[in-house]
Structures are given as structure tokens and as C-alpha cells.
Amino acid sequence: MVTETYRLLRHAGAKRVLFLVDRNNLGRQAQGEFENFRTPEDGTPFGELYNVQRLHSGVVLDSTHVVISTVQRLYSMLRGEEVPEDERDDDYQVDDAVEVEYNVALPPETFDLVIVDECHRSIYGKWRAVLEYFDAHMVGLTATPVAQTFGFFHENLVSQYTYRQAVADQVNVDFDIMRIRTVVGEQGGSIPANVPVRIVDLHTRRERYEQLDTNLDYSADAIGRTVMNLSQIRTVIQRFHDDWPQYFPKRKLVPKTLIFAKTDQHADEIVDIVREIFSGDTKFCSKITYRAENPEQLIADFRNDAAFRIAVTVDMIATGTDVKPLECVLFLRGVSSATYFEQMKGRGARTIDTDEFQRVTPDARAKEKFLLVDPIGVTDSPLVDAKPLQPATQRQVSLEKLLNRAASQGISVDEAAALASRLSALDRQITPDERDELTELASGETIKEIVQGLERATDEEAQEIALQLGGPEAQQQLVLDAVRTLAERPELRARILTIRRKYDLPYDEHTLDRVVSVEARLMGENGPQQVVEDWRQYLQDNADEITALRVAFSEPRRDPADVYRSLKRLAAKIESPPYRWTPEVLWRAYQNLGIAKGNGGRKGVPELMTILRYELGLDSELRTYRSRVEDTLANWLARQEQSGVRFTVDQRWWIEKIAVTLANRLLVTPDDLDGVPFTERGGVDGFIRDFGDDRAEQLLDELNRTLPA
């Protein structure tokens, strides 16, 4: 649209163009696009040739060529009303359709063209009179038109561009789906009657405990709206924390992630849990909603700050707003509208310049795809289309096999679509010299052009037309024509694979498990059984060192810090050659043998301690350290209650947060109390305030000694 505006102003005699939005952040985004545009003739910035004005007042300057405004502000101007400069998006909520009258300061002929952004929304409903006031050509932009959109524009669809085409053209990236199923997330839950239940006042945020008169049964959809289940949130976030490296191999920095919550309160709880599980601070994860302090600055920070990795929103970033470095979109809210789902999904689809991407995600080569994380079944709904260019059935098929299928003339439609997705991702990673080399091997045809041909050949409509005209043979011929360049040039296929292996050398594309872990290279023929046997032999060979740990585990007066340091030394020792054992490798070996219960996660020292306790006979079963801490905390609280000790709501908060931290770190020091999540209650000073000088230090020491036992 910027290009079209430039052409109309320069060559077609247009005087003024209106770019209309319904949210302030979209106006800022549009202004940036106009200002960053360089003319095709000599690269002159658009703003040096034409004045761009984003309305902050009720006056359109005579010198202005492009006006950017919210429809709400324009409506106010037409009515002659004052509009504050700090206008909010919800300042002009109306129940009925608005009406406007002639305004001499802003006559209908003011604009030659009106561009309506995100025109699928109610901008043509309640605000229709504002649009129809101007005597100008009108163009609507949307990724997700609905029936009303077609009706307003008289079904005059002048251009359409599918998601598949956008991936093939490298305008968008393809995506993977992580479908998480949990008991509560699928079935809901129940709160029994006559037990104390924490209740939060949604207006004051004050907490109280009271008993329910009857059982409260709730569905999964109620979570976050009428009932809060922190276990469901924590389970989902923990699994995302543990599994995201499977989709982004060789990466240590958490991909920039956007989590969709149901309400502001739901978003607050998600933020707290994300910070706990990822051990992050306020910079690492924040809420971006209309109620947040300075949300526009938060959006800018999320785009540009490498430390800001996870944002939680309700609606503010759901549509329109670009955060191009985004690589994960996690749904903790259902979506009943296909249009809304596509808009939300689209937040992760944007491509980004490699250098710009690496400034905020320095351990990545390029943005190759995004991950759609679905713990609530939004991708299962028939209302939504969650189909990437690459079919799910082809994700584990190697690039080499797809190229061989092309060469043998036996490639299917799904395989050709998968090949298009793979080549498109590769083309975003390779260097300009490698791209030129492949173009030369393809006799002048670029990888991008090959991908575009594959996309056209595998398009559902094109395949249906071919079937009607020539049957299955015609369908297959479409695909064979698209892969002809690859099929006829073995040196091109070989070079593509060589370049691919250059970037993915440590990983085996044929393995169904997307994560290639250390044990896959070290277990040998005997697999997990050999690992466990070798580990047990190590324990026997180093009996003195292990015996000292056994004594430490059994000694009630032990110093938790000493135990932690001993375990850290042991973890570092066994990770080095010739062993190369990490706690995760050991845990997976026990898990594959059916000995370990639960997922040990990615934490090191805590899980190592549980393995040692099991092998030393101190525990009869091997469970995750987190589950041990949770059970020990429940027993400890029961003993406290039996002895007459009662904790306040604030004191329970401290105890529970310390337990969660212990489950991740094994030890909580006074210095840790001045970090996340404790700083929201005043840090170590808040801890002393709520427990008193005499009790605070004693309680922290008791929790450190008791909960890891």
C-alpha cells in the first residue's frame, strides 16, 4: 500500500491519502512503514518527498500528503469534538452505529484514496458512516476476510495471497505444531465442598480463603475465566520449557514467545509461573495488555530487546501488530472464530532480516519457522485451518529422501509440498554466494522460483482443476513439471544436501525424535541398559565419594549448601570424558527402562540427587525431584498444622514460592530472596516482615533441610 500510495502521488495526480486503522499501535506501525519506504528510482526516503501525518490533534495540515488516523479519532473530528493526545483504543466504544454530518473543515473530497487496515473487524459496522462520508476510492486490507467484509466491498476481491504462497515467496515462514494434552486441559476439574479455597477479588486483587457449600465442577474452557487452576498453567509451561529445544536444535536462548491468555488476571498468573519455571525476571517475561503500564513501550521492547523473551497478552497483540522476531505462539485460551485464530497465528508467521533477527536472538542463524503450541485443542477445531505448507505426515521425512523421490519421478503431492517448505527454509539460511552457486547449477532458476513452482503445483485448487481436466495423471504431471529442474540435475541435488549438512551436521534428519540427544550417540548397542549398568559401576568404583553423599543425605544437621556443592562437583565430573553423562541422559535411561517415573526435565543437580538417593537405597522409587518436593511440602504443612502452627495467606505465599524455587535449584539462600519471584513481595525484607526476625532465618533453614529430603 505504501508503494501504491507513492505511485498515485507521483504519477496519478493524487493529492492526499488516508490510512485508517482502529488501534493506535497499528497507526504507529503504518507510520513506520511509510517512513522506512525508499523510492524505487533513487532510494529517497518517502518522508523527504511527502509529508506523513499521524493525527494527534483535530487538525489535518495543508502540507500533508498521507494522513494516518484511528477511525475513532476521525469520527471525533467530524463531530467537532476535542480528542486528547493520549487517546486510548477504547476511548470511543459505542453500542450503536455512529452517524456523521458534513464538516466544512474536513469535506468529503479531502482524500483521493482511503486505505482501511484490518478491514475484517467492525470498522465497517459501527463505524461505517465514517468510511462512507468520504468521496474517495477505498481499499481494504485483511488476512482474514469474513462474509461482512465481502458484503461491504461488494465482493470486489481485487487481490488475494494465500499463506502457502507467502511461505513459498519467503514473505511468511512455515510452522510446526506442539500439541500438549493434559488431564485438566482436556477434561476440566472439580473443587470439593467444605475445604478452604483461595478466592481472589477481581477488582481489588485481594485474596481470602473460604469454603464452598457445594462441589464446583468446571470445564477446561472455564479455566482463566471463572476459575483458576495454576497446576494446569504450570504443567503446560513446564512442558514447553522442557520441549522447545526439540523444535529449535542447537539453541540455548528461549525463542521469543507470545502466550495468549483469557483475562488480565489469567495473564498475571501465567507471567508469575513463566518467571518461576524459566528462572526469569521482569525483563524476561512481562504482560502486554491495555491495562499494563505503557503497553506501547512494552511492544517496542518485545520487538527489540534481546532480554525480553516471553510476552503474555489477551487481545492487544492478537491482530495486526507485528513482532517479527517471534518464533513461538502458545494458546492458553480457546478461539471460536476462524478469523481470529488466523490473526493470532499470524503473529508468528512474519519473516525478518537475518541481521535484525540475530540482534535479538543471537544464537539463531535465521528465522526458519515458528512453533504453534496448543495445550487446549485449538488446532483440533474444525473451525480453524492449522495447515502449514509442509504436511504433518512429511515432517520426519529427510530432505535427501524428498530429493530422491523427485529424481525418481515418484514424488507425491504431499512430498512436493514438504520439499517446497524445506527448500524455502534453506534459502533463508544460506549465504549469497551459496545462493548464486545453486542458481548457476539450476541453469539460472533460483531456489525461490523452484519453491514457487512447487507451491503452485501442490495448490488444492490447481490439483482439483487438473483432476477434472485430465484425471490423476494430470495431477501427477503438475508435480513432475515443478520438480523437473531438480530431477534432471543430480549435481544440484547433491550440492543442496551438502549445504544443508553444513548447517545441520550434528543432527540426523532420519530420526523420528526431533531432538538428537547425547545418549543417542553414547548408549551403543545395549542402549539405556548399558548406560545404567555403566553408571552403577561408576558408583562402585567411586564408593568413597558416593558414601560421603549418602551420609550427607541422611544427616538431618547437614549443611544444604555443602550438599549442593558436592552434587555440582559430581555433575561436572561425570559430564566430562570419558563418561559424558548428564543428569538428563541418566534420567532418560532409567525412564526408558521403566524405572523412573515422570519427566526429569532439563534441570541437572536436583534430578541427579534423586537418582543417587534411589541407587543408595534411600528411596524405594525413582520420581522427579519436583514431585518429591511437593509431597514433602504437603507432609510438612500437615505436621505444622497438627502441632498448632497456622500460617497466614502471605506466609503461605512465601512457603509455596520457596518450595517451587527449591524444586528448580535445590537450595534457596537469603540472596535468592532478593530475586524473582520474591521481589514482588519485598524480597528478603518482605520475608522478614511477614515472619519476623526470629522466625524468618529459622524457617528458611528448615525448608532447605526438610523439603529436599
Describe the protein in words:
This protein has 709 residues and is α/β, with parallel strands linked by helices. The chain has 30 helices and 17 strands. Strands 6-15-14-11-13-12 form a six-stranded parallel β-sheet, covered by helices on one side. A five-stranded parallel β-sheet has the order 2-3-1-4-5. The protein has a two-stranded antiparallel ribbon with strand order 7-10. Helix 25 packs across helix 26 and helix 29 packs across helix 30 (693-706). The longest helix has 23 residues, at 460-482. The N and C termini lie far apart (64 Å).
Poorly predicted residue ranges: 505-511, 515-526
Count of DSSP H/I helices: 30
Please list the strands of the largest sheet in the order they lie side by side: 6-15-14-11-13-12
- Rg over CA atoms, rounded to whole Å, is 30 Å
* Mean residue pLDDT: 83
Q: Find the count of extended strands (DSSP E, 2+ residues).
A: 17
Hey, roughly how much beta strand do the residues contain? 5-15%
Give the N-to-C terminal Cα separation. Answer: 64 Å
Which bin fits the share of residues in helices? 40-55%
Largest sheet: 6 strands, parallel
**Large-scale geometry:** globular
Structural class: alpha/beta
